[in-house]
Write a structure and sequence with these properties.
heterodimer, A: 9-stranded mixed β-sheet, 9-stranded antiparallel β-sheet, 32 helices, elongated, B: alpha+beta, 2 domains, 9 strands, 29% helix, membrane (chain B), ALA-interacting subunit (chain B)
């Protein structure tokens, strides 16, 4: 026996290694830093050469500088190196520290957010990765899992069809259906058989607590739902003792001995158990599985029509269906088969294939008992959340291990795709390369045509076709991926999910993957942002994810509120950091032109250090509280997210604006200082302090102008910072040993100093304010318009409200069947592979052409419901 | 935070943590913007006028003497004149007083194209040595003017002290000498804290290259006010330094005679020397720039305000008009 635990399991092995993530914004900041670095090198080289030329032509005449006539060879380097020292502040080191600080605060805001606490389980949202909040605001694609992410993953047995009779249709709950209870109590054999299969055809282990209450340990939520339902209908699965199962039916104990488990695989899509009834010694095969895997195995002459209808009907309600079947075996038949099964189980080569083949031999001539329908409710607010996010320009891809029809039903019910005629679903499937290729080309053509129309076109692809498409037609598929706003990928494996993420990433899209189960871990790690739902399938996804939330609907808030604010705030903070460094650096450069290009620093080292550490970093740090628009406005107008997605607030153009502002302000500060502190006032320490004060004053007003909402903290930081600036300098000026001794006191007593400050502020801010006002009013961006509307209380707030559209699966009854191209085939069933999204059901991708074909030739009727012609 | 909050996983509710602190959200409405431009204009123009009148009331006499004080024989080669110790450097200038100079009158010397802010120059001093008699060996920043030929430390060391300005002026009017007060021209804080009262000049300008002025070795540095003034380095290549104060008025239309000892060599690098007599007002000496700048900034602000008013009247634009939102025009499905 070989046990695999923890990371050695299939799941653990397929998890992959997480790579450190870098936000698009950080990448942009790095790029801009690179550009500034090149600019710095150019400045240093130009000034270095100019300095050496000036030295050789002019400085030697200035006898008081006492340049030696002949210096060592490296003397040429001294001036460029001096300039390098002066210009090194051009790239703000403080930006890294500031960014780290604010990023951790963004993450804290997510953790603290009361509106993202899942009330049911009291789990707050959690940001594991504190470094990528800005990326949330730039998401372009969301790849979502289905079960447990969009749905609650809380399976409840709702309806059934036993031997042609429908139960649960009236009150919507079969467990409480009087007719069914009557049938059970009267001992209807069909009903009892049906319940027996529900109760014991599974791998569930009942656990009895000391108080006598039985709880179930199940790998699959579906199985647990069936067992629970059976228990509530008096077929109580009470104990499992080695191979003996005990069932308490209406007070009498029935024992079954389990002979064999014919396990579920996602290719067989059914599971069976062989049991021996301990009282009658009869051997029975109990099967349950997908309609397509069970119904064809009925014995010849059995009328399956009603069951097909039942499956169809349930499918339209978005329920997951299981067909339950039964067959009595005789001893000899079982004995022969048992030998074959053991042999198959002990083969080393192709065991899975052999076992499946052997199982196939037993699972035939079945008596179909009925169809059980299980509901997996959509989570609260999922349709609204998806609609809002789609309005925000985010494209949705649904990646699920489920079957096409289930996926489509869920997609329709949660606004993923619009019903016809507005929406259109294009199917890509096929088992051979040719088919897939043809399908792909057809869909691409349709996409290209409908691109101009305001139509909601989505493509649906299944895992098999996806495998072929990714392998052989990657280019065409990539084009399709770019053209399509919505896609549904069904029956995909965890690694395929990751591949799709990679594909979108390779097209330079920001992707967010959201999932709840272990099979989503790869995708979550691969995506730019991974979001885990801390749900029922364990915490694996939530642990691997960058963010974990309790419910899917919190994603809206995570992206539109936290992501958007983070992006806006970082955009301002990073550009401002460059601005203030450039400002002081430009002044140094200008000063070098009046100091004989020798590389003298106008500012002393204490001032330079304090400028970066205190005077300019504190006011900008509180910009983490800045809100350009209120949360409500953003939620009402999610389209505004476009500004973040397109990177409108931080790009080379906006950066050029800040660069220009730094240059302009440096000119203002330098020119005014040098002119008002000329002649007898031009004392080095004083001039330096006047210029520094000018910079600090200007930056206070720049922050003020760029702040959209002032909380008390902002006022304290901006104006308090100015006060602190004076206090610090008074303190330094009080130290006799410092170079600045008495300087600040002197300046503060001079009217000329204050005149200069006001002049610098007015001359520096006047044009900036005028430009901003003009753009704000006459060339306003959408953000500006919404700001104006929000703050003036314009009519806009009443527009564009998203009316809540409560849509649950329950009221799908009275909706006309959604016409999707699929239904032309007349057969549209909802099928859920057992254990599909649960950890044990990770589907392996087989080599081309193997298993599917094998199963088709083996099964009696190979009407495998693939729709080649839609 | 109390224990209960620490243990529960639920987020702590506070206005800060929920980002719900009450906030003032101003927007740039035409009213605000136009009003602030008008206010700035209305404030700046009067201040500018005040500053300009003040500057205008300052009487300033500037006399450039570096070229005029070179005898004609040397005008081709002024350096050989200034470097020749045998030639008398005395030079007399007559200056007309256009307006009455009211005491106190400040006497400055102005140097142009003199880089006191040069990197080699500005650092070349030792604060410790100037302050502390025991630190006379602290000359590491003073090179190349740190030690004399006997390897004894120079006090005060460094290029700044070494290049001390050494022209002198004697002023007389109507045949009467006007005394120039040389006391109290340096910053008091310098005399108290920066220059030691027990530090005396030593080995200064003794051998090797002679730079500027020599210092009286019997007077401590804290009383060498010319040195202190000189050592407050200027940030610009054109600067004025206080030479002394005159405490008597000089009447208008008088002619003052200035006897200059023209010692300082600015000829080598083409620098200029000027003698400046100036009165002072609340903004300091003569400085037309501040007044003019205030008036122009104020004027531009008013001009902006008028433009914005016109724009507002002739091209009104409703703020926050939803029809400007593109998605309201072409709704996204």
């Amino acid at each position: 026996m070989v046990y695999f635990l923890g990371n050695e399991t299939k799941l653990g092995m397929s998890r992959g290694v997480a790579e450190p993530k870098l936000t698009a914004m950080d990448a942009m900041i790095d790029k801009l830093t690179g550009a500034i670095f090149i600019f710095q090198i150019v400045v240093v080289i130009v000034l270095g050469i100019a300095g050496n030329v000036w030295k050789d032509t002019e400085a030697r005449k200035h006898w008081y500088v006492l340049y030696p006539d002949e210096g060592p060879w490296y003397e040429l380097l001294i001036i460029p190196l001096r300039f390098e020292l002066l210009c090194s502040i051009m790239i703000p080191i403080s930006i890294k520290v500031s960014l780290d600080l604010v990023k951790s605060l963004y993450a804290k805001f997510i953790d603290w957010d009361k509106q993202m606490v899942d009330v049911e389980t009291a789990t707050p949202a959690n940001a594991t990765n504190t470094a990528i909040s800005e990326d949330l605001g730039q998401v372009e694609y969301i790849l979502t899992d289905k079960t447990g992410t969009l749905t609650e993953n809380k399976m409840i047995f709702k309806r059934c069809c036993i031997a042609g009779t429908f139960f649960g249709n009236e009150n919507g709950d079969a467990v409480k259906d009087v007719e069914l209870l009557k049938a059970i109590n009267t001992g209807s054999p069909d009903a009892i058989k049906f319940l027996t299969v529900m109760a014991i055809c599974n791998t569930v282990i009942p656990i009895k607590s000391p108080s006598g209450i039985v709880t179930y340990k199940a790998q699959s939520q579906d199985e647990e739902a069936l067992v629970r339902a059976a228990a509530s209908m008096h077929m109580d699965f009470v104990n499992k003792n080695a191979n003996i199962l005990e069932i308490n039916f209406n007070g009498s104990l029935i024992q079954y001995e389990v002979l064999d488990y014919l396990e579920f695989t996602s290719d067989r899509k059914r599971m069976s158990v062989v049991v021996r009834d301990c009282s009658s010694n009869k051997i029975i095969l109990l099967s349950k599985g997908a309609d397509e895997a069970i119904l064809p195995c009925a014995y010849a002459g059995f009328q399956t029509k009603t069951f097909y209808e039942a499956v169809d009907q349930y499918a339209q309600m978005g329920l997951r269906t299981f067909c339950l079947a039964w067959r009595e075996l005789n001893e000899v038949e079982y004995h022969d088969w048992s030998l074959l099964f053991k042999e198959a189980n002990s083969t080393l080569v192709d065991r899975e294939w052999r076992v499946a083949e052997v199982c196939q031999r037993l699972e035939q001539d079945l008596e179909i008992l009925g169809v059980a329908a299980i509901e997996d409710r959509l989570q609260d607010g999922v349709p609204e959340a998806i609609e809002t996010l789609r309005k925000a320009g985010i494209n949705f891809w649904m990646l699920t291990g489920d079957k096409q029809n289930t996926a489509i039903q869920i997609a329709l019910s949660c606004n993923f795709v619009s019903p016809e005629p507005k929406g259109q679903l294009l199917l890509i499937n096929g088992k051979t390369e040719d088919e897939v290729c043809r399908n792909l080309e057809r869909v691409l053509l349709t996409m290209r045509i409908t691109k101009a129309e305001p139509k909601d076109v989505a493509f649906v692809i299944d895992g098999w076709a996806l495998e072929i498409a990714l392998k052989n037609y990657r280019k065409a598929f990539t084009e399709l991926a770019i053209l399509s706003r919505t896609a549904i990928c069904c029956r995909v494996t965890p690694s395929q999910k990751a591949q799709l993420v990679e594909l979108l990433k390779s097209c330079d899209y920001r992707t967010l993957a959201i999932g709840d189960g272990g099979n989503d871990v790869r995708m979550i790690q691969q995506a730019d942002i991974g979001v885990g739902i801390s749900g029922r399938e364990g915490l694996q996804a939530a642990r691997a994810a960058d963010y974990s939330i309790g419910k899917f609907r919190f994603l809206t808030r995570l992206i539109l509120v936290h992501g958007r604010y983070s992006y806006n705030r970082t955009a301002f903070l990073s550009q401002y950091s460059f601005y203030k460094s450039l400002l002081i650096c430009f002044i140094q450069i200008f000063f070098s032109f009046v100091s004989g290009v020798s590389g003298t620093s106008l500012f002393n080292s204490v001032s330079l250090m304090a400028y970066n550490v205190f005077y300019t970093s504190v006011p900008v740090l509180v910009s983490v509280l800045d809100k350009d628009l209120s949360e409500k406005t953003v939620m009402q107008h999610p389209q505004i997210l476009f500004y973040c997605q397109a990177g409108r607030l931080l790009n080379p153009t906006t950066f050029a604006g800040w660069f220009g502002r730094a240059l302009f302000h440096a000119i203002v500060v330098f020119a005014i200082t040098m002119h008002s502190y000329a002649f007898e006032k031009s004392e080095m320490e004083e001039v330096s302090m006047v210029a520094l004060s000018g910079c600090v004053w200007l930056q206070a007003f720049v922050v003020t102008l760029e702040t959209n909402s002032f909380t008390i903290l902002q006022h304290v930081a901006i104006w308090g910072n100015l006060v602190v600036f004076y206090i610090i300098n008074w303190i330094v000026s009080a130290l006799p040993r410092s170079g600045m001794y008495t300087i600040m006191y002197r300046l503060c007593r001079q009217p000329a100093y204050w005149n200069t400050m006001f002049l610098i502020v007015a001359a520096g801010m006047g044009p900036v304010l005028a430009l901003k006002y003009f753009r704000y009013t006459y060339r306003s961006s959408k953000i500006n318009i919404l700001q104006q509307a929000e703050r003036l209380g314009g009519p806009i707030l009443s527009l564009g409200n998203i009316e809540p559209q409560p849509r649950t699966l329950d009221d799908t009854d009275d909706r006309s069947p959604l016409s999707i191209s699929q239904s032309k085939n007349g057969r549209s069933s909802v099928f859920e592979p057992l254990l599909s999204d649960s950890p044990s059901a990770v589907r392996r991708s087989f080599g081309p052409g193997a298993t599917f074909d094998f199963f088709q030739s083996q099964s009696k009727s190979s009407n495998y419901p693939r729709n080649k012609d839609n | 935070m109390d224990q209960k909050n620490k243990n529960s996983k639920k987020p702590v509710y506070s206005k800060f943590s929920q980002q719900e602190l009450p906030a003032w959200k101003p927007i740039l409405t035409p009213g605000w913007v136009i009003a602030s431009y008008i206010t700035i204009g209305a404030l700046f123009i009067p201040i500018g006028l005040l500053a300009w009148t003040a500057s205008d009331s300052v009487v300033e006499i500037v006399d450039r003497y570096d070229e005029a004080c070179v005898p004609d024989d040397f005008s081709k080669n002024p350096q050989s004149y200034i470097q020749n110790p045998d030639i008398k450097k005395t030079c007399t200038r007559s200056i007309k007083v256009p307006k009455k100079l009211v005491a106190p009158i400040f006497v400055y010397y102005q140097l142009e194209n003199f880089y006191q802010n040069h990197r080699r120059f500005v650092k070349s001093k030792s604060d410790k040595q100037l302050r502390d008699v025991k630190a006379e060996n602290d000359t590491k920043f003073c090179l190349p003017v740190a030690y004399d030929y006997d390897n004894k430390p120079i006090v005060p060391c460094g290029l700044i002290a070494w290049s001390l300005f050494n022209d002198t002026y004697k002023i007389s009017t109507r045949g009467k000498d006007i005394s120039i007060e040389k006391k109290g021209i340096a910053w008091k804080s310098d005399a108290k804290a920066k220059f030691g009262s027990n530090v005396y000049p030593k080995n200064f300008q003794k051998d090797g290259l002679i730079g500027g002025a020599t210092l009286d070795e019997s007077i401590p540095l804290s009383e060498q006010e010319d040195l202190m003034v000189w050592m407050r380095t200027a940030a610009l290549p054109t600067f004025r330094k206080l030479y002394g104060k005159i405490n008597t008025d000089i009447e208008a239309h008088d002619t003052i005679k200035v006897e200059i000892q023209n010692n300082y060599n600015t000829y080598k690098f083409g620098g200029r020397k000027k003698l400046v007599l100036s009165t002072t007002t609340w903004i300091g000496g003569k400085n037309d720039f501040v007044g003019m700048a205030y008036i122009s900034v104020g004027g531009i602000c008013l001009f902006m305000a008028i433009n914005f008013i016109l724009l507002y009247v002739f091209r009104p634009r409703r703020l926050g008009d939803p029809s400007y939102l593109s998605w309201n025009r072409h709704p996204i499905t």
